[in-house]
Structure formats: structure tokens, C-alpha cells
Amino acid sequence: MIYIQILIMIIFIVAALFAIASVFNAISVLLQVKKGNLDELEKKTVSDSLVYTMFVLLFLHLIQFILGMIVNFMPDSQFHYYPIISGGLPFREVMGNSPWHFEALFFDFLIFSIIYFFRKRKYRD
């Protein structure tokens, strides 16, 4: 049992490091756009990444909303649904295991950084 808790803790630490790094990555990319350091193709890559990020986040939040509606409006349900992606620190933790959740702001930055990374690689190759 202790090994599972250690594994979960390591997973959360790695996810937290990626999330924090993605915040700085997104801010640096947006500052480069603002300063005009990027050419037109790179600006298009950033704007495409923002559009794809918005679609992914809309889809994920819609699924989360529908699951919450289904589970919480079922009569005599023994299960209570907690959203995995939650904003505003509802459980007093940015990332935690009681219940398992991920802060929405860091998740948004993480999704943007992942999409931007793959979009940038597409044009680089």
C-alpha cells in the first residue's frame, strides 16, 4: 500500500513540475509574440495552438459538465462526482489526491504547451 502512495506522489510531483514549466513556457511564447520576435509562421503556430487549446478545453470541460450532471442528478446515487479539472482551489490544494483533481489554470497552460510543442515540431521538420 505504501508503494502505491509513493507512486502516486511521484506522479503528482512530475505533473506539478510539467505544469509549472508549462506556465513559464506559455508566458515566454506570448511575450515573444508581443515583442515581435517571431516571424509570420511562428505567429501562426502560436495562434493555431491557442485555437486548438480552446477546442480541447471546451471539449474536456463539456464532458466533465455532462458527467457531473448525469451522476449528481441520479436519484439514490451512492457516488458523488468531483470534477478532475477544477478552478479556484476548491479542495485547498492545487493538485491533490483527496479527491483527485488538477487546478484548471495550470491544466490550461499545460494543454497549451503540449499543443504548441507538437505544432512547432510540425513546422520545424
UniProtKB/TrEMBL annotation:
Keywords for the protein's UniProt record, in alphabetical order: Membrane, Transmembrane, Transmembrane helix
Domain of life: Bacteria
Ranges that cross the membrane: 6-31, 51-74, 100-118
Protein name, UniProt field: Uncharacterized protein
Species name: Enterococcus haemoperoxidus ATCC BAA-382
